[in-house]
Amino acid sequence: MSTQTQSETGTASVVAAELKQKIETGDAVVGIVGLGYVGLPLAVEFARAGLKTIGIDLDPVKVEKLNAGASYIQDVRGEDVSSVRKAEKFEASDDFDRLAESDIVFICVPTPITTNKEPDMRFVRSASEAVAERLRRGQLIVLRSTTYPGTTEDILLPELIKTAEPHGLKLGEDYFVAFSPERVDPGNTTYTTANTPIVVGGMTPVCTDLGATTMEKIVGHVHRVSSPKAAEMEKLLENIFRSVNIALVNELARLCDRIGGISMWEVVGAAATKPFGFMPFYPGPGLGGHCIPIDPYYLSWLARRYDFETNFITLSARTNEEMPYYVVDAVVKAIANQPISLAEANVLVLGAAFKKNVDDTRHSPADRVIDLLRARGVRQIELSDPFVTTFQVGSLEFVSRELTPELVREQHVIVLTTDHDNYPYEMIAENARCIVDTRNAFARLGRRLDNVTVLGGGDFV
Ligand SMILES: NC(=O)c1ccc[n+]([C@@H]2O[C@H](COP(=O)([O-])OP(=O)(O)OC[C@H]3O[C@@H](n4cnc5c(N)ncnc54)[C@H](O)[C@@H]3O)[C@@H](O)[C@H]2O)c1
User: Fold this and answer.
1) Catalytically annotated residues
2) Average pLDDT value for residue range 212-238
3) How many CB atoms are closer than 10 A to CB 341?
4) Taking CA atoms, which of 232, 390, 394, 411 is between 20 and 30 Å from 25?
């Protein structure tokens, strides 16, 4: 439901009023560019809400799978894809010309960083170009990729203007542009698209209103901000908030280990009993996933263009990046306590996914841990993750091993990097010689285990 008055939203053109009506009646066609972790759930939600949805991706394998009614994303059920296919509400394609049919186009492409830790805008640029080439009167374009403040205005809009100007199309009257960040949390079954509020900021009040009206088709609450820049910055604040707080507990975890005899896990658990002014974050082997390790660099890079150093954010990123080194020190110490050389020691890594109960391995701390173990001379490394079949670390491919008592007994050290709920913790604890637990995962067994050392547990390194 729109909560703004007409004077706040500005006077809508006939084109805007027609588009708004189409959206409200469910007759608008939605186009989604990029059918990954963000784009695919979004496409399925719009299709389930009854809007005809066309998903565009460069990857023909994904397109083929979706059109066959299958899903390749854990949080999107195959039956949901096949039901929107059967209802003829959803279609995938690699033909960008299909965008001409769309009234609303969402851009959901990756925003990685370069090896120099600077924003890699190749995907946003090429998607913006493809969308801009097909821009027509009555279209709303919404950027959804996480990015630095100013991207919508400085990268997307200039591309759109290249088509708009020669055709006499005016922003806010004939075509509309907004930014609306994604908040999907893979693996989270409590907060899904429908019950997670969404932020929208348009280039003009009418753009914001159309963006919000669109999102209200699939989410319960839309929060409007005054510009795409505010929405872009808001998303970075969300993710940097996590990065900074995780860095804080990681630093304190290392301090607990240095002092000895204080468990950071017990400390966080105790602080979390305060019902206001505290939110628990937990230590771990390093950041992972497509967002939290990357997004702080988007803001630091932008800040430098304004002669501004984001010291706090940079320090947090550095603190979190130190964690895999800290974990590897603990593994090497655990090997040194046994009559075996680093080269001969068997080490089993539990967890390739970047967080528990998901299959997403992007920027997983396990990658860094394995890489650093190898750099320290550990050669015999195995991996087990019930959600992952194979895991690539540099040029090495690890095939996930089935966890058996024999495999566990063969290991000199087991390092747990992901606390999946379905590991057989009891069996591992009973059979393992030495466990380096970076997530306090074995605490669930409810008893002291002499063969487990816990990161931040007060006796780690
Ligand atoms: N994964 C998350 O949990 C999450 C959460 C919030 C925000 N985000 C942000 O959303 C954006 C997308 O992330 P993702 O996780 O969905 O990425 P992804 O890699 O899972 O999916 C991106 C898709 O875009 C396709 N693609 C790339 N360039 C294209 C182009 N020019 N035209 C058409 N398709 C193209 C790729 O083939 C891929 O299927 C990123 O900016 C990310 O930071 C991700």
Assistant:
1) 291
2) 97
3) 12
4) 232
Q: Report pTM.
A: 0.93
Coil, helix or strand at residue 59? coil
Q: Are 228 and 179 in contact (CB under 8 A)?
A: yes
From the number of C-beta atoms within 10 Å of its C-beta (0-12, 13-18, 19+), residue 407 rates as middle
Per the CB < 8 A criterion, the answer to whether 226 and 35 are in contact is: no
Residue at 399: amino acid letter: V
Domains located in the chain, CATH noted: 12-226 (3.40.50.720), 246-454 (3.40.50.720)
Structure token pair of residue 445: 């067994």
Return left, alpha or beta for 37; rule: phi > 0 is left, psi -120 to 50 is alpha, else beta.
alpha
Q: What is the pLDDT of residue 375?
A: 98
356-367 pLDDT, tens digit per residue, is: 999 999 999 999
CA 279 to chain CA centroid, nearest Å: 20
How far apart are alpha carbons 227 and 154 in whole angstroms?
Answer: 13
List helix spans (H) across 186-294: 205-215, 228-259, 264-271
- Cβ atoms of residues 148 and 119 within 8 Å: yes
User: Is 102 a residue whose pLDDT tops 70?
Assistant: yes
**Mutate-to-test residue for ligand 1 from 66, 109, 196, 359, highest number of ligand atoms within 8 A of CB:** 109
Dihedral of the CA atoms 125, 66, 218, 182 (nearest 10)?
A: -40
Q: What does the block give as tokens for 227?
A: 């510009």
Instruction: Kindly list the protein residues whose Cβ atom lies closer than 6 A to any atom of ligand 1.
Output: 33-39, 56-59, 62, 108-111, 123, 126-127, 145-146, 182, 184, 186, 290-291
